[in-house]
Design brief:
It contains six helices and 13 strands. By secondary structure, the protein is α+β, with helices and mostly antiparallel strands.
């Protein structure tokens, strides 16, 4: 296990929640109910069109008079002109019942895993006034999220004399995506604090030898700062251990890192 595996697992779970939340904000969508020969859709009746009256035009009074003949020839229309009857109603069009399913379409909800509430409680509820969402995973469930990095974690646990059953991880982040910070805690029950931190740093150096690792005091905590110049997304990682728990913060904002670390145990 290394810096990237912790960040990628936490970020992956957060990204899934953002996607579901965006979809669910649109609400449920209803489809027309079908049955038998299908539902009928009646076309609207045609609107009437009224022709506006033409404005009056005043002719000058001195126009010459024109004498019309006293009798005009009459024009007789034939009596047998055919009549045209318009239909009283337009036909309806039936939509087959199997085109759309009946009922409503509900977008599934998303709930964060919460397998170690005690470890979650050690992370702050908010940073700089922004409420954080917490979630946690234990043992094999956490391993299943790590894909190719799972062996790194197993090697670390083995070096500590532990198994996946002894570990759990908790995360805290802004699920709305407004605050660019992720907090985490990685517990290995009964592990030595120094061995846990050193094992994590060694795994990081092995996986990402280009990382720059320094010691610093940030937010009142003595931390190991890990900088990966090739990572422009997650930012820097700040790591320290307390008892059998490894705490970390990742962000691109140093001031936000200080605020987060000052709120951690």
């Amino acid at each position: 296990m290394n810096r990237r595996s912790l960040i990628s697992i936490g970020s992956g779970i957060t990204a899934a929640s953002l996607f579901i939340a965006a979809c669910s904000s649109t609400g449920a969508t209803s489809a027309p109910s079908g049955g038998g020969a299908g539902a009928s859709v009646a076309l609207p009746s045609l609107p009437s069109v009224s022709i506006p009256s033409l404005p009056s035009v005043a002719l000058p009074s001195n126009l010459p008079s024109i004498a019309l003949p006293s009798s005009l020839p009459s024009v007789e229309l034939p009596s047998n002109l055919p009549s045209i009857a318009l239909p009283s109603s337009l036909p309806s069009i039936a939509i087959p019942s199997n085109v759309l399913p009946s009922g409503s379409f509900a977008i599934p909800s998303f709930s964060f895993p919460s397998e170690d509430k005690d470890l979650e409680s050690k992370l702050p509820n908010q940073v700089n006034g922004v409420t954080l969402t917490k979630y946690s995973l234990k043992g094999d469930k956490f391993l299943s999220q790590g894909s190719g990095n799972s062996q790194d974690l197993i090697d670390l646990l083995t070096s500590l004399g532990k198994t996946p059953a002894d570990m759990s991880a908790a995360f805290a982040t802004d699920a709305a995506g407004g605050s660019d910070v992720q907090l985490g805690a990685f517990r290995v029950i009964g592990a030595d604090s120094g061995a846990l931190l050193n094992g994590f740093i060694a795994a990081t150096q092995k996986e990402s030898p280009q990382d720059k690792i320094t010691q610093a005091n940030v937010g009142g905590k003595n931390v190991t700062q890990i900088v990966d110049s090739s990572d422009t997304t997650s930012g820097n990682a700040y790591v320290y251990s307390n008892g059998d728990i490894l705490y970390f913060v990742t962000t691109k904002d140093p001031a936000l890192a200080a605020a987060a670390l000052s709120a951690m145990p």
